[in-house]
Amino acid sequence: MITYQIVQSNDYKKVLKLKNYCFRPAYEGKRLEDFMHWVNVSTIQGAFDQEELVSQLIILPLQMTVFGVPYDMGGIGFVSTYPEYRNAGIMKQVLLRSLETMRERGQLLSVLSPFSVSFYRHFGWELFFDKVQYELPAQQLVPSGKTIGNIHRIDELNPDFDHWFSKIKTFYNEQIAIQNGRLIREDDWWQRLLRRTSGTSFAVYTDELGKVMGYIRYTIQNLTLELLDFNAINYESQQNLWQFIQSHTAEVEKIIGEASNQESFGTAFLNPQFQQQIVQDKMIRIIDVERFLYSYPFEKIDDPLYLNVQDKQAEWNNQIFKIEQEGQVTIVKTPKNEEMLTMDIGKLSALMVGYHSLDYYVFRKEASGSDKTINQWSNALPKGYPSFYDYF
């Protein structure tokens, strides 16, 4: 008989064993250290066949921004089931229980990287970020002119590493505080990035007064420079960082990295015709609609808004919500004379983080309401595309 429960610390060796079977090769060294750290601070939803842990998922306690507002978020990772227990509905039950667990812990959003988009759509997650993976021949980079300011190159062996690393973290936090759909990186997440990627270097761009204006995090291996982070405060900062990258043409043959599809990446290059691939590998779900709406930064509400949410997996969301000018959110019965926006939980989740405009979902018949209702909601929703690059 299969039983479902939160995995306790005395079973963490079973968590590692199941992970190693489903995600190979087995972790060792710093990656193993990092995995066990997150096992210890996360919630692990599990399924047991007597004493054996046969299915699991790890809910990482994280935060992300939605139009500058921080939300507690459950990052779903290491979804694992032994092959002899697959296709028996066990992971379905684990996922359903994870929704309840995240709600109890106040994690109002959940993000994951799907092995199957259709599978997770069934449980209410939806795609919310399109990124471009690019491979740029180093010789196609053309210097943009004289560098203004200074570039500081550091790695973990640099005696000033802690000083610059602190500045990088501060800069990142200041930038994402005004951005949308970004992971809030606490100190243990920054340590995770260092533990999971050996040979990491940073290049920090500062203006003439010493203020950090941007940075990149990168590695160089096998004649390839891989950009792991690229954050800049303005176009000039971007160009100076690209100038630094271009200076590596003697050491590397290509540069690889990721960018938001909304950025039209590479169009400013002299020759923008290089290999690019659009990847959709992030899905999001609102766990608790009422509490999510309460903190949501609506732009303009002249008259109360009504939202009819359809959620087959989380009955607490299957409600009609009234949002008033003061930001008050209440659950109401079917209003007699009021018009509602009706959406299922997955499409609503993507809409609320800015993946597409409301008109997009109306056109695809994934949102319904009168013209007046659609116009009211369109005016109330903030605008801005999400950019979520981190992995669990």
TrEMBL record:
Highest taxon, organism lineage: Bacteria
Tell me which residues make up the N-acetyltransferase domain: 2-143
**Which InterPro entries does the record match to this protein?**
Acetyltransf_17, Acetyltransferase_Eis, Acyl_CoA_acyltransferase, Eis_dom, GNAT_dom, SCP2_sterol-bd_dom_sf
Protein name in the entry? GNAT family N-acetyltransferase
Q: Which organism is it from?
A: Carnobacterium inhibens
Per the UniProt record, the lineage of the source organism begins with: Bacteria, Bacillati, Bacillota, Bacilli, Lactobacillales
